[in-house]
Amino acid sequence: MRTAVIIVAAGRGSRMGGEVPKQWQGLAGKPVLAHTLAAFAGMQLLLVVHPDDRARAEALGVPFVTGGATRDASVRAGLEALEGTGVEAVLIHDGARPLVSRALIGRLVAALEHHAGAAPALAVTDALWRGAAGLVAGTQDRAGLYRAQTPQAFRFPAILAAHRAHPGGALDDVEVARDAGLDVAIVEGEETNLKLTFPGDFARAEAILKGREMDVRLGNGYDVHAFCEGDHVWLCGVKVPHARGLLGHSDADVGMHALTDAIYGALAEGDIGRHFPPSDPQWKGAASHIFLAHAIGLARSRGYELGNCDVTLVCERPKIGPHALEMQAELARIMGVGADRVSVKATTSERLGFTGREEGIAALATATLVRA
Length: 372
Ligand code: MG
Fold this sequence. Notes:
alpha/beta; Spore Coat Polysaccharide Biosynthesis Protein SpsA, Chain A; CATH 3.30.1330.50; 2 domains; 8-stranded mixed sheet; 5-stranded mixed sheet; 12 helices; 19 strands; elongated; binds magnesium ion
């Protein structure tokens, strides 16, 4: 069925307060209506706005008509504008419900195959009371009661005829449809499909949007350092006694270097060499925690927090197992995160290759960053 969407945004929203009506107020950086329109992206859209909001509507770049003094009249204006365009079904939606999901839209369109109308609702689960003068005056049976939402979906000719025949004063389009004798199926609604009504609703909506737009970054790092003369190696911030040392410009902490590069990688910020050039003498012999602290600091300055990291050291000797917990604790301390987000483990390469011949140590690391 060829389906259009009418988004009703002509109200003045007196309960919300503020300089502009709620559907034009900012939500996570753009007008509420821009979110609502985005929820129906790719569908045929028609916006119904107040005559005072023409300029705002033009800025959104979607077709619009101006509405009437009541919600009924505004919906009617939208329906009349769609007549003769070949539309077979229409979804009628409140502009102040910006979080409607594609899944819900899909359920409504599917329901129209079998019913003249379909609308989302949630069964009432809280106990219901009657009240008078601030006191509970009685209870109300909640069986069979629903909280109604939008979009409300209808076969187009039927809802246009129903609106033309209606005397006005309906709460919503389901009431108009039922007054015309149309069957309206109840489709499962969504708790997140909230209608922005009171100022606190904006904070709730922003929290839901933030969850949907979760930004997770993944980076990997790989490093190798060769053995040289010495009596210890630095690995993941821990000084480990060994018959050799590791050769490098800094302290040659191959594990911490791999981890640092994983964080830079997750940020698309190159590697240690970009931020601490080996050609710069001030980093000669530097303790590698400076690099790791810089990388995690850069991540935080961009709004990210470490999700977790996993470092694998590849060597025959020294044995890593006895030091792994201390390494985990030290990396966690440097990055300022819980040790449960840091993994340090080791493997040999079965005596194969340069690590197997004990010419050096390799390290691999993976890190995730999550927008905080
Ligand atoms: Mg290195």
